[in-house]
Amino acid sequence: MPVAVQAGLWGLLSGSALLIGAGIGWRAPLSHRTIAGIMAFGAGVLISALSFELMEEAWRSGGFWPVAAGFLGGAAVYTLLNRLLGAAGAKHRKRSVIAERAKDREANPGNGNALALGALLDGIPESIVIGVGLLRGGGTGYVAAAAVFLSNLPEGLSSAAGMRAEGKSAAHIFGLWSAIALSAGVAAWLGNVAFAGLPAEAIAATQAVAAGAILAMVVDTMVPEAFEGTHDHAGLIAVAGFLAAFAMSRWARGV
Fold it and tell me: How far apart are CA 87 and CA 35, in angstroms?
């Protein structure tokens, strides 16, 4: 099977975690504390993945300064776009706390498009990482896909719980996440195709940009939800997620 097709399928699989999480949140709503705990675990997973699978690999191929510029640039672009989407009513898109989500509706009652764009903004850098990671022929893309899958579960849970409480229909919720899951597959495929044959430095810079965007997303959107529900336990749970992803990374490398 062509590597680009594999990348697309892995991206689709990681995006499908949004649907699985939404299904759990719809069928068997979990407590806010439980959702926040899963979000904290997912944040730790992503931080581990971008530390050991993205930044380390990027630094080895591109050197410090190009990677540093890409890392800061990715974070800056994400922050700018996130602020614009927040002003449009998608600031609390990952929150399951109804009062917080109500603030978005009050600020912009027609915030459905902003919520969808926010989900795309969060997911596309992760998917591109999967596609680009598979170009290296190692385990980077697979580990990234597993990490994104684990981190997407709490996002689906949190958003589905909040949307259901707002009165959104099942068709609306699952239609939205289905579209995002498909876009994740397309982004992973595109990331693989677009960067095939490019110098290692270009791939390294792309990984650094994506890593910066992912870290900014974790801190801006996942950590607030995690701390809101777990408080003093958020750090411990995030460390558990970090350790799980680190172990998975070492296992994939045969270390």
Answer: 25
Task: Give me the mean pLDDT over the 177-191 stretch.
Answer: 87
Helix 140-165 and helix 32-49, axial crossing angle in degrees, nearest 10: 160
Phi, psi of 92 (to 5 degrees): -110, 40
CA-to-CA distance for 158 and 173, rounded, in angstroms? Answer: 12
- What is the arithmetic mean of pLDDT over 77-97? 74
Per DSSP, the residues of 170-185 read HHHHHHHHHHHHHHHH
pTM of the model: 0.81
Nearest residue to 188 via CA among 55, 14, 52, 43: 14
Tokens 């898109």 locate to 93
Tokens read off for 45: 């997973």
Among 235, 218, 190, 213, which Cα is nearest to 55's? 213
Alpha-carbon dihedral sign for residues 243, 50, 77, 85: negative
